[in-house]
Design the sequence.
């Protein structure tokens, strides 16, 4: 293995010594098994390839993309772009701190090491052709971190139906939005209640942001309530569609979408989602947005519409298959990039294409499998993403729609007929086969098993669909859920391909190994032309000798590397991976755990390969545009790229990148004015003018003469930050800019409307139900009073005036309130008015709620003389019924009921009585009986009725809600002997009827519920509360029920949840502060050499959040034991010191004897039934495994035990149930080798560890955790395996759930 981590192809060819200007270290474009380079080699003259001037290969202009990073071990490294628009003879002069540093000549890589470089050193690249300056890069300073950090404007939490949700940064794309030759990043924000199409539930709004690489926030698009959140709903395509040098952004929109300038598309008030959260009604649009401003330029109807009978059209009736969307960009005429949008792939498939001329979207062609009967069909053949490539070498792009391919004119080229699959990849996989190939894995064995064989994993010719090589799945019913292709093994020509079934397959179809690496994503990272695996936050390399993956080349999830996280659950994909900066290798873009920044990682591993940017290969560039679509897949170029490529200059120059011309850019002058959380950014784009300075003016109205100056940016600065803006105020800005000659720059004056994205106004959500409206709100303000205002209305389209008098007063610590005094069908607007301790009054926006009308039977029964007289009065039931059935049961359930009265008389179907003589032998004293209808009216079960039953029953339930600080009550007053005319609810701090406090007057007798907030002063911590009712009967009798409920108001004690571990030569500290009531003024980390905070050293005392990670590297003593503490100072002066972390013995370079396997990593194989979830805090990695609650459920892991010996298997788990959800441990075919207990941890977000020591033999080992109880396993965070008697850690073997 070489210094750069690469492997030579020793079994096939020898490597020649690198020569300048010719590189022979690796080979390019063609693959020649017989070739051995001769020495000496006389290079042909450095001449340029003939460029295509027809316009069919125009590419975007890109600057040098200079990036500087800390070196692997010392100094700095720098990397820059060799453009497809460059000459072959171009020379680069490198400057350090404004002084000449080095010359990089033709044939040398565009990567340099500066072993003496320091953080803060500056570098610049000058490009020279024939001693004439071509361009000069920006000056870039060396950072201290190994990544480029881009701050994100994280959205505030929201509510849907009273349930709070938060946001995390999800998929991203890259495009030059401003036309300056630098990529901007477009980021999708996913709410944490996002759903797969198969899952019901309402979701929060999807947001799309744009940021410059410098961290400027350009705009935010809110797709609104009528676009559901989830991987298959929003596919956004950023590309320069009208070829003016600036990219636009296209995506599906709907009524309520708000563009980047605050303009609403369609009906701003419309909400079409149904009770299941699906959106199956309302108009659907396709919108093209301006890249600079996020403004909607052109909106057209989405093609195709969903249609009326979605079950008949798409294959199900609840919204799964109808809303499977894909998107891309394709050069269908060979010159013009067209937008590609599609709908459906399990059954019907429709692909629509559009062109954009800078102002208008126009339809190109539409393919519809339901209408096309001319030949091969796309129906049922699509994948969870698509690809675009020129498969027939006619200069025009085709659309690879899974197992079928559409020609550039919209007619099917072919279909393999092998059906839907999760992954599809297009590139030159088999160099000996002309053109491109397609690697695909398939889902349904009924489709991919044909009379010709089992083609669950296959490579077919991209032009014809002919199956070239394949591997069978394990058998019928197997879903081959994952698969990738890339050259990872230098001992075999071409690309290797592998899926979740079968082994690692060479390009000739032979199986290299049953072992195989991760298959989520690929990236060119180290210095050779083999591709590496990107799985979650780790980049790993295949070792062709051991046929296993090595230790990670990069683990972006550590503190030193930014605490990155991957996206999309088990798919574990990056936000984006593409050749964004530097040399030909790919960057990896990941968000940090808190979603407060994006981190762009570039390789700092030396390389001797010189290649032009992959972004100037059309197929690769369009793949970056569609990478965010569905199940994100890595990009592939249009040419063969692997370790057996030839890198002779005369071959390199024939790469497609060098056939290109630049898009004829049209400089534009504009300004971007965008509110952040605490300031407003004003950014000027001067077009072709040289900016000298600009002045910014602001007003709270759109009248120019009312604006006043807020500042000036001088010296050519293009950005100005207004720090004086206040939350919740709409501002208008104007910009006056001048060039170096003092002339005004036209086109940027304004006005520009914006406001801060932060707010002091609480977010109020109203949840409507039968009889009740629940209000919930979130605010960080310290309050003295909260008042609720209510106005009833019949005109829900127009908000009435806020009443002058408050309807209710709530204690200032409350976060919720229930209106139980609503009329049936009543519609209301609510205002929440907050008064801060400083006396400021803040009004929330009005929220609408209603008392939903539901069916009711109003069943009642009285017993006398052996007969139960059952009466009913059906309410809110559709008229016209001609038959009904009355049932009785002796249990409160439908199962086992008996039909006692078929009602065919229309006169009594809706209102009537029936005398029930009871079951055989009559009614039993003390036995309760329940009644219900089956055919008409609601399915409610009413009872118990009878004689000798307990009287004055309240059915009270009282539970503490620690999250909201409320006691939640439900009740159903029953068997009081008479009709109840009034009920008052009381609370007490003792089980007594004296000293009671009135909670609410005139509450409901049936269907009663209340979230008690504790009244004016709130509840007292550690106080016990009882509840009772004062019930007034029809004859005036008053009954006071016995106190019951007995709820201890005990909010959880503050917890710091501190964890420590060795990482990167230091000690990593993780914490998560919970249950701290009140405002926190300071958070500190303490360290001591004993388990006491007394005399502890302060490690850090500033900048810490409630949840976070820190790492300490300095002042640690080898083999010293350390304990860490969190010290929290409250605003009122209270100081709380948390429990110490567990003892940790420090070692700078600990020997690696252990392996930790999380859900999305190599070694995690299968969960029988269940979900990988992330809804309980405190887990590590991307989530935890939650098996179904049944005995026999299991989780399987696969590892390579390198040395026989004793190993500790440790499971980190949570178990909020009361039982021991233990695991039986099976090793390979040995059943019940050991047991790992998983006793109750008291809560699902409390994690503990449990372990067992085992003797294991060397070799490939399957470890199965088998649920031994009916509750299934506890929630399993990870499996940790530690070698106790050997020096070598186990190795994870990739497999897929």
Sequence:
């Amino acid at each position: 293995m070489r210094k750069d981590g690469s492997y030579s192809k020793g079994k096939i060819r020898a490597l020649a010594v690198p020569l300048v200007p010719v590189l022979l270290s690796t080979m390019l474009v063609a693959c020649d098994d017989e070739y051995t380079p001769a020495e000496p080699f006389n290079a042909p003259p450095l001449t340029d390839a003939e460029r295509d001037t027809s316009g069919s290969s125009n590419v975007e202009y890109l600057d040098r993309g200079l990036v500087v990073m800390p070196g692997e071990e010392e100094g700095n490294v720098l990397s820059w772009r060799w453009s497809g628009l460059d000459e072959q003879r171009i020379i680069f002069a490198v400057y350090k701190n404004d002084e000449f540093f080095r010359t990089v000549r033709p044939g040398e890589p565009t990567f340099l090491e500066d072993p003496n470089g320091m953080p803060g050193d500056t570098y610049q690249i000058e490009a020279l052709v024939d001693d004439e300056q071509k361009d000069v890069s920006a000056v870039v300073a060396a950072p201290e971190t190994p990544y480029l950090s881009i701050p994100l404007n994280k959205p505030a939490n929201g509510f849907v139906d009273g349930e709070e949700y938060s946001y995390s940064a999800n998929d991203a794309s890259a495009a030059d939005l401003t036309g300056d030759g630098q990529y901007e990043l477009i980021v999708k924000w996913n709410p944490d209640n996002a759903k797969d199409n198969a899952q019901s539930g309402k979701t929060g709004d999807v947001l799309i942001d744009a940021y410059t690489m410098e961290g400027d926030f350009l705009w935010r698009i809110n797709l609104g309530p009528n676009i559901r959140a989830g991987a298959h709903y929003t596919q956004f395509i950023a590309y320069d569609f009208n070829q003016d040098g600036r990219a636009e952004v296209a995506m599906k929109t709907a009524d309520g979408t708000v563009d980047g300038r605050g303009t609403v598309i369609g009906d701003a008030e419309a909400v079409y989602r149904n009770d299941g959260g699906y959106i199956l009604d309302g108009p659907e649009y396709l919108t093209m947005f301006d890249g600079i401003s996020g403004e909607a330029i052109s909106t057209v109807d989405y093609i195709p519409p969903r249609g009326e009978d979605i079950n008949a059209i798409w294959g199900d009736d609840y919204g799964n298959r109808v809303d499977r969307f894909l998107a891309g960009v394709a050069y269908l005429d060979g010159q013009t990039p067209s937008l590609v949008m599609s709908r459906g792939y399990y059954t019907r498939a429709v692909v629509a294409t559009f062109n954009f001329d800078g102002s208008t979207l126009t339809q190109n062609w539409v393919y519809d499998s339901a209408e096309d009967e001319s030949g091969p069909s796309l129906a049922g053949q699509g994948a969870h993403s698509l690809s675009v490539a020129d498969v027939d070498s006619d200069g025009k792009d085709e659309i690879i729609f899974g197992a079928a391919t559409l020609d550039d004119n919209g007619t099917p080229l072919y279909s393999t007929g092998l059906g839907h699959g999760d992954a599809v990849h297009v590139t030159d996989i088999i160099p000996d086969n002309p053109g491109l190939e397609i690697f695909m894995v398939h889902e349904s064995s009924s489709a991919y098993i044909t009379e010709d064989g089992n083609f669950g994993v296959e490579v077919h010719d991209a032009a014809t669909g002919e199956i070239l090589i394949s591997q069978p799945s394990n058998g019928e019913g197997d879903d081959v859920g994952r698969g990738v292709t890339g050259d990872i093994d230098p001992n075999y020509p071409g690309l290797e391909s592998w899926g979740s079934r079968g082994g690692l397959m060479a390009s000739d179809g032979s199986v290299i190994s049953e072992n195989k690496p991760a298959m989520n994503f690929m990236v060119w990272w180290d210095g050779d032309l083999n591709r590496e695996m990107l799985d979650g936050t780790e980049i790993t390399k295949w070792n062709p000798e051991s046929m296993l993956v090595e230790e990670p080349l990069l683990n972006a999830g550590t503190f030193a590397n930014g605490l990155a996280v991957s996206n999309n659950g088990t798919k574990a994909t990056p936000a984006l991976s593409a050749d964004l900066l530097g040399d030909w290798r790919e960057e990896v873009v990941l968000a940090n755990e808190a979603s407060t920044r994006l981190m762009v990682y570039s390789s700092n591993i030396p390389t001797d390969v010189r290649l032009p940017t992959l972004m100037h290969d059309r197929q690769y560039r369009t793949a970056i545009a569609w990478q965010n679509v569905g199940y994100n897949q890595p990009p592939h170029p249009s040419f063969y790229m692997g370790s057996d490529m030839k890198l002779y200059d005369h071959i390199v120059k024939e790469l497609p990148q060098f056939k290109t011309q630049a898009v004829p850019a049209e400089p534009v002058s504009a300004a971007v004015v965008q509110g952040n959380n605490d300031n407003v950014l004003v950014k000027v784009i001067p077009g072709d003018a040289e900016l000298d300075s600009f002045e910014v003016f602001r007003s709270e109205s759109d009248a120019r003469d009312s604006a006043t100056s807020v500042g000036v940016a001088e010296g050519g600065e293009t950005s100005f930050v207004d720090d004086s803006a206040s939350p919740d105020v709409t501002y208008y800005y104007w910009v006056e800019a001048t060039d170096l000659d003092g002339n005004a720059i036209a086109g940027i004056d304004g006005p520009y409307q914006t406001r801060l994205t932060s707010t002091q106004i609480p977010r109020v959500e109203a949840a409507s139900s039968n009889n009740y409206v629940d209000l919930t709100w979130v605010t960080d303000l310290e309050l003295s009073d909260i008042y609720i205002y209510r106005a009833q209305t019949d005109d829900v389209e127009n908000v009435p005036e806020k009443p002058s008098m408050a309807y209710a007063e709530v204690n200032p610590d409350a976060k919720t309130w229930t209106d139980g005094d609503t009329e049936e069908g009543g519609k209301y607007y609510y205002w929440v008015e907050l008064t801060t301790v400083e006396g400021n009054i803040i009004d929330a926006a009005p929220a609408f709620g209603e008392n939903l009308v539901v069916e009711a039977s109003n069943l009642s029964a009285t017993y006398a003389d052996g007969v139960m007289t059952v009466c009913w009065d059906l309410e809110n039931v559709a008229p016209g019924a001609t038959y009904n059935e009355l049932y009785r049961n002796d249990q409160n359930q439908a199962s086992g009921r008996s039909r006692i009265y078929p009602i065919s008389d229309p006169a009594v179907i809706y209102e009537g009585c029936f005398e029930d003589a009871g079951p055989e032998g009559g009614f039993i004293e003390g036995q309760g009986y329940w009644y219900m209808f089956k055919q008409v009216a609601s399915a409610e079960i009413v009872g118990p009725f009878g004689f000798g039953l307990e009287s004055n029953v309240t059915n009270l339930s009282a539970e503490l809600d620690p999250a909201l600080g409320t006691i939640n009550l439900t009740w159903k007053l029953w068997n009081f002997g008479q009709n109840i005319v009034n009920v008052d609810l009381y609370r007490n701090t003792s089980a007594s009827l004296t000293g009671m406090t009135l909670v609410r007057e005139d509450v409901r007798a049936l269907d009663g519920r209340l979230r008690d907030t504790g009244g004016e002063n709130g509840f007292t911590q550690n106080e016990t509360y009882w509840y009772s009712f004062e019930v007034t009967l029809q004859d005036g009798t008053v009954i006071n029920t016995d106190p019951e409920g007995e709820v201890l108001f005990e909010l959880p004690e503050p917890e710091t949840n501190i964890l420590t571990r060795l990482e990167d030569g230091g000690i990593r500290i993780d914490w998560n502060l919970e249950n701290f009531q009140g405002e926190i003024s300071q958070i500190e980390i303490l360290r001591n050499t004993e388990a006491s905070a007394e005399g502890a050293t302060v490690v850090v005392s500033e900048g810490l959040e409630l949840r976070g990670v820190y790492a300490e590297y300095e002042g640690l003593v080898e083999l010293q034991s350390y304990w860490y503490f969190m010290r929290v100072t409250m605003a009122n002066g209270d100081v709380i010191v948390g429990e110490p972390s567990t003892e940790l013995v420090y070692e700078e370079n600990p020997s690696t004897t252990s392996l930790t396997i999380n859900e999305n990593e190599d070694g995690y194989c299968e969960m029988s039934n269940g979900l990988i979830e992330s809804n309980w805090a405190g887990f590590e990695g991307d989530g935890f495994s939650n098996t179904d609650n049944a005995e026999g459920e299991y989780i399987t892991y696969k590892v390579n035990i390198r040395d026989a010996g004793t190993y500790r298997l440790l499971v980190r788990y949570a178990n909020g149930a009361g039982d021991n959800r233990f695991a039986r441990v099976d090793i390979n075919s040995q059943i019940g080798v050991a047991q790992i207990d998983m006793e109750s941890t008291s809560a699902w977000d409390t994690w503990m560890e449990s372990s067992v020591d085992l003797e294991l033999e060397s070799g490939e080992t399957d470890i199965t955790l088998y649920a031994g109880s009916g509750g299934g396993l506890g929630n399993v965070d990870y499996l940790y395996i530690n070698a106790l008697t050997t020096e070598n850690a186990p190795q994870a073997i990739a497999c897929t759930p």
Q: What stands out?
A: The radius of gyration is 34 Å.
